[in-house]
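Q: Now give one record:
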Amino acid sequence: METYGLESAAAGQLLAYYGVAQATLGLLPTQDRIVLERFFNEVGNMHLVVHSTYSSRLNRAWGLALRKRFCRTFNFELRTFSPALGCAGC
């Protein structure tokens, strides 16, 4: 990891984090691939998460657009969020 200027502890944490993400999602987002994840929380509300390598500003716009499309198509209300980590969800 010297090539990237990471200490071994930091490199280990990154590998563990992305390993869990890939195991959970089946694949990771790249500049050519966006990963959508849908799940239901404990009370049955549906959530849609957009995983991408783009900025949170762009992900938030996608989340709002998807929210509007879902609301109009399926006639139910969704909420959006865009955390600083760069994923948007409904």
